[in-house]
Design a protein that fits this description.
The protein has four helices and no strands. By secondary structure, the protein is mainly alpha-helical. The longest helix is centred in the N-terminal third of the chain and has 45 residues.
Length: 109
Amino acid sequence: MGIYTEKREQLIEKIEELEKHIERDTAKKKTLEDKLREVSHLAMAEEFNCKPRELDEIISSEHQLLEKLRTSGLSNEELLEMVGINSAQNSNVNNDEIKFYDEPDNDDD
């Protein structure tokens, strides 16, 4: 075998090994992300002092209420003022930072 053929085989082996690591690490990452999602859900339920099953209903109800307030013509700034964030505090909050779950992120700005 030539020197370049041997070198090529070594590189192919290294690439294959790295691909195996990537697959393994990707699976581990997905597992950890799933656990994080579950623990985050439990932490929110704990914070709201409710059962985890009730949390989705609470979030959905609050989201619907907020949507109704926005539909009635209230701006994000007015909504923030309603919950006790005054104008001085509000200047640090960008209206674009108030997002809903069904709104797409526009990172093109």
